[in-house]
């Protein structure tokens, strides 16, 4: 795949360069403002923050509200207040996806010109009989890959994925191998309702912010091959990836707003922070009780190698 993304059109942040000569480690935390932060959110924030800071790097914050219908309400401000109460400090301004539609359109236009993207007329109902992909969505059968069916207007835009194995090494989960053609299919870049898809937005954002290290939950591990293919199409550098185990409830479900995960209680910040570090394999000394003391210890002793090589870990109550 030929690179088609012009780096000269990136944001005012430094242009991304290969990691061997990149002057700064740059991580990011990118919550979706669909509700309050919970323990699983804290785990992801702690891991990404420490992996950047302990290498002398920057830590950026991004609001992933590209799916605007799901991101109504005051949750972005609530998330910022919660992060501040827990002692997080980020660099620069907060990036907001809903303000970046023009950038995503530029990337989609470039993909279209290079024949990496094509229009799709299929409805959700028409795809219900297709087998399931690795992420639980229906595997796209390629109906519109060679052209729209007669008389059917385009509804969405998809990326034409290669039929080959893609392998990358995750710093926590180890080697990951996936064939997008058989395990995910040509995936959506712009939805039928006109909103840009997460996969396109996150790749453009990571490139524009010069992100070198992506540390996030293992629920996004299966999205990474799609993002790597997009990065190759757009000609941007692929960051290093580390996917942390996600916190799951007694039913084995990932903690989320949908599973009614309890919001973080800022009055219990030291206890929750200690629990998040222990969840990530970092044993905090018992005598440390203040948030500032725990952070100081963590920045001195953080080791990504101690994080359990699991996709999910049961979350025990930490307020007792």
Would you spell out the secondary-structure blueprint of this structure?
Blueprint: E1 26-29, H1 39-53, E2 58-63, H2 75-85, E3 95-96, H3 101-113, E4 117-120, E5 156-159, E6 165-170, E7 174-179, H4 180-183, E8 188-190, H5 198-209, E9 213-217, H6 224-234, E10 240-244, E11 246-248, H7 269-279, H8 291-301, E12 312-314
Parallel strand pairs: 1-2, 2-3, 9-10, 11-12
Antiparallel strand pairs: 4-5, 5-8, 6-7
Helix pairs in contact: 1-7, 5-6, 7-8
Q: Could you describe the 3D structure shown?
A:
The structure is a single chain. With 320 residues, this protein is an alpha/beta fold. The protein has two domains: 23-99 and 203-314, 3-Layer(aba) Sandwich (Rossmann fold); 103-190, Glutamyl-tRNA Synthetase, Domain 3 (Glutamyl-tRNA Synthetase, domain 3). The protein is 28% helix and 16% strand. The chain contains eight helices and twelve strands. It has a three-stranded parallel sheet with strand order 1-2-3, covered by helices on one side. Strand 9, helix 6 and strand 10 (240-244) form a beta-alpha-beta unit. Helix 1 packs across helix 7. The longest helix has 15 residues, at 39-53. The termini are far apart.
